[in-house]
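Before a colleague's protein record goes any further, I have to sign it off. I want your independent view on whether this chain really folds as the tokens say. The record follows directly below this note.
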Amino acid sequence: MVLFFYLLCLALWLGAIVFFSAFVAPVIFTRLPVAQAGTVVSVIFPRYYLLGYACGGLGLALAIYLAVVRGPQGWWTSAAVALAIALGITLYAGIGIRPQVDAIRSVAEQTNPDPARKAEFDRLHHLSVMLNGAVLLLDLFALISTAAALTPP
């Protein structure tokens, strides 16, 4: 049962990242004006990050448990380390970066924004996208490590 919940955490976290990044955000920003799209995304993000915190925290705890119970296999440890880093990045992006982006988001909607504020928004947005990509790659690595750990010798 532990393995099921561990895999469920990985699947939900990965699925949310892929679905939001590849489907939700592109549709929102191509169908709505920028101001409305920004508002919609800012409403989605707290739930998006909450899912990451929950799946990341539970997934990490279960990965550590599996590493201990199934013996000191390198693959289980690799998965746990990848999830710990991914959770740390998610917490940083959601608690540290997202509020900063929200605070200056209106600059992206202005016709003639202050260049310094626009540059800061663009920098933070780019950082957020890069962090999201890093979490995706780390979660995929954790999944690959899990598959390797479960593969019979």
In short: The chain is about 85% helix and 0% strand. The radius of gyration is 18 Å.
